[in-house]
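Lab notes, practical 5.
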Amino acid sequence: MHAYIDYPVALGLIAMPFLLNIGATNQVAFALSIVTGFAALALTALTDHETGIIRVLPYKLHLIVDGLVGATFVAAPFLFGFTGFDAAYYWVLGATVLVVVGAHKADEAAVAAE
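Output from the prediction step:
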Protein backbone atom coordinates (compact mmCIF):
# COMPACT_ATOMS: atom_id res chain seq x y z
CA MET A 1 0.00 0.00 0.00
CA HIS A 2 2.88 2.36 0.83
CA ALA A 3 4.13 2.21 -2.76
CA TYR A 4 0.75 3.34 -4.10
CA ILE A 5 0.47 6.44 -1.93
CA ASP A 6 3.99 7.71 -2.56
CA TYR A 7 3.23 9.40 -5.89
CA PRO A 8 0.13 11.28 -4.67
CA VAL A 9 1.96 12.32 -1.49
CA ALA A 10 4.90 13.63 -3.53
CA LEU A 11 2.56 15.59 -5.78
CA GLY A 12 0.80 16.93 -2.69
CA LEU A 13 4.11 18.13 -1.24
CA ILE A 14 4.67 20.05 -4.47
CA ALA A 15 1.14 21.49 -4.71
CA MET A 16 0.25 22.21 -1.08
CA PRO A 17 2.56 25.20 -0.58
CA PHE A 18 0.73 26.95 -3.43
CA LEU A 19 -2.74 25.87 -2.33
CA LEU A 20 -2.30 26.50 1.40
CA ASN A 21 0.01 29.54 1.23
CA ILE A 22 2.82 27.65 2.99
CA GLY A 23 5.81 29.92 3.49
CA ALA A 24 3.94 32.91 4.90
CA THR A 25 6.28 33.00 7.92
CA ASN A 26 9.41 31.77 6.22
CA GLN A 27 10.26 31.11 2.55
CA VAL A 28 12.19 27.99 3.56
CA ALA A 29 8.84 26.46 4.53
CA PHE A 30 7.62 26.98 0.96
CA ALA A 31 10.77 25.60 -0.69
CA LEU A 32 11.30 22.63 1.65
CA SER A 33 7.96 21.05 0.76
CA ILE A 34 8.43 21.49 -2.98
CA VAL A 35 12.02 20.22 -3.03
CA THR A 36 11.02 17.26 -0.86
CA GLY A 37 8.12 16.51 -3.21
CA PHE A 38 10.38 16.33 -6.26
CA ALA A 39 12.90 14.23 -4.33
CA ALA A 40 10.08 11.90 -3.24
CA LEU A 41 8.98 11.47 -6.85
CA ALA A 42 12.52 10.49 -7.84
CA LEU A 43 12.93 8.18 -4.84
CA THR A 44 9.65 6.41 -5.55
CA ALA A 45 10.41 6.02 -9.25
CA LEU A 46 13.81 4.51 -8.42
CA THR A 47 12.66 2.18 -5.63
CA ASP A 48 12.46 -1.57 -6.15
CA HIS A 49 8.75 -1.99 -5.34
CA GLU A 50 5.43 -2.36 -7.17
CA THR A 51 5.30 1.21 -8.50
CA GLY A 52 9.01 1.73 -9.15
CA ILE A 53 9.83 2.72 -12.71
CA ILE A 54 13.59 2.10 -12.65
CA ARG A 55 13.96 -0.30 -9.72
CA VAL A 56 17.51 0.30 -8.56
CA LEU A 57 17.11 1.32 -4.88
CA PRO A 58 16.19 -1.21 -2.21
CA TYR A 59 12.89 -0.65 -0.44
CA LYS A 60 14.69 -0.63 2.91
CA LEU A 61 16.65 2.45 1.79
CA HIS A 62 13.37 4.06 0.74
CA LEU A 63 11.99 3.52 4.26
CA ILE A 64 15.14 4.96 5.83
CA VAL A 65 14.84 8.08 3.67
CA ASP A 66 11.15 8.38 4.56
CA GLY A 67 12.05 8.20 8.25
CA LEU A 68 14.68 10.91 7.81
CA VAL A 69 12.15 13.10 5.99
CA GLY A 70 9.62 12.61 8.79
CA ALA A 71 12.19 13.53 11.45
CA THR A 72 13.34 16.53 9.41
CA PHE A 73 9.77 17.76 8.99
CA VAL A 74 9.11 17.49 12.74
CA ALA A 75 12.34 19.38 13.49
CA ALA A 76 12.06 21.94 10.66
CA PRO A 77 9.93 24.50 12.55
CA PHE A 78 12.53 24.57 15.33
CA LEU A 79 15.52 24.56 12.98
CA PHE A 80 14.24 27.16 10.52
CA GLY A 81 11.91 29.26 12.67
CA PHE A 82 8.58 28.29 11.09
CA THR A 83 5.58 29.52 13.08
CA GLY A 84 1.81 29.31 12.89
CA PHE A 85 0.30 27.30 10.08
CA ASP A 86 3.72 26.67 8.50
CA ALA A 87 4.90 24.95 11.69
CA ALA A 88 1.67 22.97 12.02
CA TYR A 89 1.94 21.80 8.40
CA TYR A 90 5.39 20.33 9.00
CA TRP A 91 4.57 18.85 12.40
CA VAL A 92 1.48 17.06 11.06
CA LEU A 93 3.22 15.80 7.92
CA GLY A 94 6.34 14.75 9.82
CA ALA A 95 4.36 12.87 12.47
CA THR A 96 2.28 11.16 9.79
CA VAL A 97 5.37 10.00 7.90
CA LEU A 98 6.94 8.68 11.12
CA VAL A 99 3.76 6.73 11.97
CA VAL A 100 3.62 5.20 8.47
CA VAL A 101 7.30 4.20 8.58
CA GLY A 102 6.93 2.87 12.13
CA ALA A 103 3.85 0.85 11.21
CA HIS A 104 5.65 -0.64 8.22
CA LYS A 105 8.58 -1.76 10.35
CA ALA A 106 6.13 -3.42 12.74
CA ASP A 107 4.61 -5.28 9.78
CA GLU A 108 8.06 -6.52 8.70
CA ALA A 109 8.81 -7.78 12.21
CA ALA A 110 5.52 -9.68 12.32
CA VAL A 111 6.23 -11.35 8.97
CA ALA A 112 9.76 -12.29 10.05
CA ALA A 113 8.39 -13.91 13.23
CA GLU A 114 6.07 -16.22 11.26
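Observations recorded by the TA: The helical segments are 2-20, 27-46, 59-80, 84-113. The chain has a mean pLDDT of 90.
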